[in-house]
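Why does residue order matter? Because the sequence determines the fold. Keep that principle in mind as you read this record.
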Amino acid sequence: MNMMNSIKTNLLLERLIWISLRRQQLAEVKEKRPSWFRGQPGTVWREIPPVFVDGDFNFDARQVFNRFAGPDSWQLWLQRGTLILPNIFNYLQSAKSEIDTEFAMYDFHLNRQPGLPTMGWMRNMYHSGVQQLIYQDPVLWALTAAARPDKLWRLIAYPYNAKSAVSGQKTGFLHMDLNLKRYQSEGLGKNMVQSSVSLTDENDKGCTVVSQVQYFLTNEDINRYT
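Structure:
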C-alpha cells in the first residue's frame, strides 16, 4: 500500500531510549498515579516530554472534516455527534483477496469455547495486515484528531480484535464505554473519540447502533450506574 515510516533512524533511537528509561520508572509512576493502572494495562507514556511536542503546530478542524468527510461534514458532526463516512477505505479493494484469506486463516485457528458465544468476535485477530493498515491510515488519524475536543494530534493506535459475523449469528449487546466515576473525578474519557471500520456493507439488521443521551449526573446517579 506504499505506507512507510518517514521518521529518521537517529530520532527513532532517541525515542526508544526515552521509552526504555521511562519503563525503569514504572514502580515510581504506579505509586504517584495509581489510578492510571486500575483495570487496564500499565502505561508510563502519559507525561509527554517537551521534545516530542510541537507547540507551534495547530490545525483547522473544520477544514480537516470538510476535506476528508465531505462538504458541511463539520457542521453535521457538531449537530449529531456521529457520522457514517462511506468509501474512506476504498483502496483496500485492491487487497480484497489477501484480506479474505487472512480472515479465513484466523477463523481456522480461533479457539471456540463451549458455552461462550462468539458473537462474531475474532478473539485471536489483533495484528493482521489489514488491521495494521487501518491503524496507520492518515485520513482516519486526521479525522480522529480533528474530532477530539482537545485537538491532540500525537495519538497512539492500540490493537483491538476484529469481528467477522455470519448471517443469523447473534451479535447484539448494549454497553456504556465510560467509567462515570473516573470521568467525574479525573475527566477520563472526556476527549475520547470512538470509531469503527466496516469492510462490508451494513444494513439495519446488522450494524452498530449509536445512542446519544445527554444529561447531568449527580453523585447518586454515578454510584447507581457503577
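Confidence is low (pLDDT under 50) at residues 41-45, 213-217.
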